[in-house]
Design goal:
The chain is α+β, with helices and mostly antiparallel strands. The chain folds into three domains: 5-225, Cupin (Jelly Rolls), CATH 2.60.120; 230-288, no CATH class; 312-392, Malonyl-Coenzyme A Acyl Carrier Protein, domain 2 (3-Layer(aba) Sandwich). The chain is 30% helix and 25% strand. It has helices at residues 5-10, 14-19, 41-50, 89-97, 112-125, 230-240, 245-248, 257-275, 280-290, 347-354, 361-368, 372-384; strands at residues 26-28, 58-62, 65-66, 73-77, 83-87, 101-104, 129-136, 152-168, 190-195, 199-202, 206-211, 218-225, 312-316, 322-325, 331-335, 338-342, 359-360, 388-392. Strands 1, 2, 3, 6, 7, 8, 9, 10, 11 and 12 form a ten-stranded antiparallel β-sheet that branches. It starts with a helix and ends with a strand. The mean pLDDT is 94.
């Protein structure tokens, strides 16, 4: 059975976005079979077996501190004198049984189903997503009481885990901030036990502590959400305003007080003019979507372009591509920091790609009234631009 990713995303509907997102925690009780086929212990075992995973990508954590790698792995030197570390299963098991938490970062880059979930969450929430896996066996708190500098969505896949949530002591704290949050109150705001199938959303800055204290092991995924703040908007605006002579001009460090005041005033006028434009925020967010990092998906064996094979399937490897029409009616696609302009006839097939999913070349050709060869040529441009990938239709 495959995971019903749309059902997972649907749980984060308009009610969640309007009432909880960025504001308060929310517990989503389990729904039958919602996470079936997403990720399980056999998948974790396979990743540990078939990948050479080094800290901090793979680590064991106890009380917020990472165990040294030599505690559970041994160095192996190849005949070409490169060194990698081979896990020692017995030592790995021992440390986990004694209270360590296993953490595997960016598992969305290693596991197709989790990668698909991350991309759909990116499309829905319009922000970058990184998924980490956590496995623990004892009531020991692998990280102690702490807060994260990004929102998280937790998917409890197996077992159970107790969450003590204390709430924030500083609103919207940042990784690079002017101050640190005050310690949380001793008593939690709420205490929850997540069982298999449950989800939990927690905004950044909310203190919490987590432990597998229910007498069973625990496996969960944490989907971390990239923050986009007022600081990001101001940074973008400072770059965008380099088009203005005043912004590029040397500061009047040796000028008169009147000259210094006039310079500061002119800068303020430029910034205020930008903020008086009601579309400035939408312009910034559109740019963020258009420059969203594409995921790494090669298109082997098609190294010399996409052939005109009707059964080949194509998909975009960025979830936040933008499609619009220019003044001449041409279809303009922005994705991965690049922009392509195609004839108006290409708009229907591009719309299918932007909406997500894998589409056969013949399906795209019918949607646009084009020949399969023409679609293959268009798709080749997107593959060369590293925003699309092709493979055999499954």
């Amino acid at each position: 059975m495959t995971t019903d990713v749309p059902a997972v995303v649907a749980r984060l509907g308009k009610d969640f976005l309007a009432q909880a997102y960025g504001r308060t925690y929310r517990h989503f009780p389990a729904e039958p079979d919602c996470f079936d086929g997403l990720f399980h212990w056999d998948d974790l075992n396979a990743l540990l077996t078939h990948h050479r995973l080094e800290p901090p990508r793979l680590r064991l954590s106890v009380d917020g501190e990472a165990l040294p790698q030599h505690a559970y792995a041994v160095p192996v030197t190849t005949r070409r004198s490169t060194v990698w570390h081979r896990l020692k299963p017995a030592e790995l098991h021992r440390h986990l049984a004694e209270g360590a938490t296993l953490v595997l970062d960016a598992i969305d880059e290693l596991h197709p189903a989790v990668g698909h979930l991350a991309q759909e969450l990116e499309r829905h929430l319009r922000t970058g997503i990184q998924v980490n896996a956590y496995a623990s066996w004892t009531p020991e708190e692998g990280f102690g009481i702490h807060w994260d500098d990004h929102d998280v969505l937790v998917l409890q896949l197996d077992g159970a885990k107790r969450w003590r949530i204390h709430g924030p002591t500083r609103q919207a704290p940042l990784h690079r901030d002017t101050d640190v949050p005050e310690p949380p109150p001793r008593e939690p705001l709420v205490e929850l036990v997540l069982s298999a199938g449950d989800m939990l959303y927690l905004p950044r800055g909310w203190w919490h502590a987590v432990a597998a204290s229910e007498g069973v092991h625990s496996l969960h995924l944490t989907c971390g959400m990239q923050t986009t703040t007022g600081a990001d908007l101001l940074q973008w605006l400072s770059e965008d305003l380099r088009r203005e002579t005043t912004v590029r001009r040397e500061l009047p460090r040796f000028g008169t007080e009147e000259e210094k005041a006039a310079f500061v005033r002119s800068l303020g006028d430029l910034v205020m003019k930008e903020f008086e434009d009601g579309a400035v925020l939408d312009r910034f967010l559109t740019l963020r979507d258009a420059t969203d990092r594409a995921r790494l998906v090669p298109s082997l064996p098609y190294v010399e372009g996409v052939p005109a094979d009707p059964a080949l399937a194509v998909h975009l490897v960025t979830a936040r591509a933008r499609l619009h029409s220019d003044r001449e009616g041409n279809a303009v696609l922005t994705a991965g920091g690049e922009e392509w302009t195609f004839s108006p006839q290409a708009a229907p097939l591009l719309s299918l790609l932007v909406d997500g999913g894998r589409h056969r070349l013949d399906t795209l050709a019918r949607a646009a009234g084009l020949r399969v060869g023409q679609v293959a040529q268009l798709v080749s441009e997107l593959v060369d631009g590293e925003v699309a990938a092709v493979g055999r239709a499954g």
